[in-house]
Amino acid sequence: YQEFTLRFRDCSWELVERKEQEQLAKEAIPDVLFRIVNFMQDKEEWTGTATELLDALGETETAANVLTKWMNEYRPDFLLENHIRYDFSRRSSGRMISLAVATDI
Questions:
Q1: I need a surface site. Which of 74, 77, 92, 103 has the fewest CB within 10 A?
Q2: Count of domains in the chain?
């Protein structure tokens, strides 16, 4: 899959920009997930709610439910590729997120 940006000039089409599938996929990844990878660089593991994770990241633009959705969506393609293991569980204290550095990948 590729994306081309074309411009029509002087009765002909010009190629302005060409993006490969890998570049398009990377651009689709929400910025907050890159911040999670950076956040985990100096930690072995982290556990808390989505709201607590957003607070730890200093993220104010993303809702907790949206973060959880993105983490589920990008778990195999982005988080694991960056050696972050993500688990989600429900407890009496709420819905908990567990992040750990995956050394066995």
A1: 92
A2: 1
